[in-house]
Amino acid sequence: MNAASIFGNLGERARAAFARRGAAAGASGGAGVDVPVRDWVSTSAGQPTRLLGFDLTLIWVVLSLLALGLLMVYSASIALPDNPKFAKYAPMHFFVRQALFILIGLLAGWITVMIPVTFWERHAPKLFVVALVLLMVVLIPHVGKGVNGARRWLPLGVMNFQPSELAKLAIAMYAANYMVRKMEVKENFIRAVWPMACALAFAGVLLLAEPDMGAFMVIAAIAMGILFLGGVNGRMFFLSVAVLIGAFVLMITFSDFRRERIFAYLNPWDEKYAQGKAYQLTHSLIAFGRGELFGQGLGSSLEKLHYLPEAHTDFLLAVIGEELGFIGVALVIFAFFWLSRRLFHIGRQAVALDRVFAGLYAQGIGIWMGGQAFINMGVNLGALPTKGLTLPLMSYGGSATVLNCVALAICLRIDIENRQLMRGGRA
Hints:
Layout: H1 3-7, H2 10-27, H3 56-77, H4 93-112, H5 117-137, E1 145-147, E2 150-155, E3 160-161, H6 163-181, H7 189-209, H8 213-230, H9 234-253, H10 256-266, H11 271-274, H12 279-291, H13 316-352, H14 356-380, H15 398-422
Antiparallel strand pairs: 1-2, 2-3
Helix pairs in contact: 3-4, 3-13, 4-15, 5-6, 6-7, 6-8, 6-14, 6-15, 7-8, 8-9, 8-14, 12-13, 13-14, 13-15, 14-15
């Protein structure tokens, strides 16, 4: 069974949807006029229903995650100046910078939501090339900024820009655009899968040179997910996945520090690892254990007091668990589940309206947000090996926060255009 048989041919589904709408229009006497498919937001006895031009719930969920993330970044970083490594920083340093990043991200999202989706479809290959160039530039000595042995940032004065975050957005656009162009030959491996595999492999080599295996995993998941949803041949898809998994296994096998991380993950409480490779994991688990059901209270975490490294970035969820308990963690998990599900719904709606690029892009962003959140949560909870991936929208980081907002703003624009089409207008 191939992917096309699972999800159905996208073009046929779109044509069928328009045929049904045309038939409904003819039956109502409006030949050639589309019948609006309304997305009503409220119905109550004696009150008229109301139609919104955009998804308010999506906006509120995103804003809530940003606000909670800002609050927890402040809580997790307020004690960092006590550490000699951060002695030059003020107690509110990370809070102020994260607030600035969020404002920049919201402004960038507000501008982005005004841009038609067709613009991104036309320029998707160019954006992907720009992302690849920046991934090469960051590897140039004295140009890219290195931190803890990794060279992943370009210093821009106000903030450090991380090209891998742009690469996540670019691969979602490029893969969606690629599938639209290759829709007629998606059953042919050489013409449909091989070029995309080469592009992904090249991006992977650049990311692993930084090194940033976590970003490569997310980018690979986005690209392969869009290929699958686009309807490539099932056998070719699963063969590609097998090759990709084999490549990850080989990277772990021939890398001493990655192999040690796996062993530490399997037995974090071993004395050999508890003070070494599993140090973050053990203290993250202690934080969750202290949180219990309702948490120790906002600001009352002990693990953030120089026990848990990277508490304001990769392990922010552990601080949430310690201070807000199981209830707080469950709400964050539910919010990301709802967000990913909503993005997939927007994507399916766009495909039904024969907007294949928009639909695949929205679903690709759903894979990005849901997949990265899943990996980060799994690492924090000890369900997955330790990997340096932040929690989208919540962890401290400038380029991640801004590009998350931009990516979601494009999805909001897709939803707006979907609603316009369903009301009989133009996207």
